[in-house]
């Protein structure tokens, strides 16, 4: 139970988790924004992966906007940064699109082998 009946805002794009900021910042009819997310490993930004989910009329939802889906799209193994993109029409009632954009490196894991196992012969 939360104090005073308030629940925490766990939306990764905090301003869009409640309707009030849309009134004073604008965006009731159309809003479009890019929100920086938490940072990952300190790695190069050589690959970009994007995963989106969409909603129409609050009736039909489809897509996968998870971080794992974005990593798979860009074949990313180490995350450098995460951003979220949102587009909504009439506060997201008519149409809403939420995308997760992951940047990072897709370097394959290198394994070292000695000459004996690489050639298959004994020395």
From TrEMBL:
Entry superkingdom:
Bacteria
Per the UniProt record, one Pfam family is TRL
Q: Which InterPro entries match?
A: TRL-like (IPR025113)
Q: What is this protein's name?
A: TRL-like family protein
The organism of origin for this protein: Leptospira noguchii serovar Autumnalis str. ZUN142
């Amino acid at each position: 139970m939360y104090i005073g009946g308030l629940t925490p805002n766990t939306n990764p794009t905090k301003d869009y988790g409640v309707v009030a900021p849309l009134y004073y910042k604008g965006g009731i009819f159309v809003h479009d924004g890019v929100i920086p997310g938490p940072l990952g490993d300190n790695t190069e930004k050589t690959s970009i992966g994007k995963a989106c989910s969409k909603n129409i009329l609050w009736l039909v939802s489809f897509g996968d906007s998870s971080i794992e889906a974005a990593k798979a799209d860009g074949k990313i193994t180490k995350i450098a940064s995460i951003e979220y993109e949102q587009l909504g029409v009439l506060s997201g009632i008519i149409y809403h699109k939420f995308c997760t954009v992951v940047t990072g490196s897709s370097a394959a894991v290198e394994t070292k082998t000695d000459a004996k196992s690489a050639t298959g012969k004994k020395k």
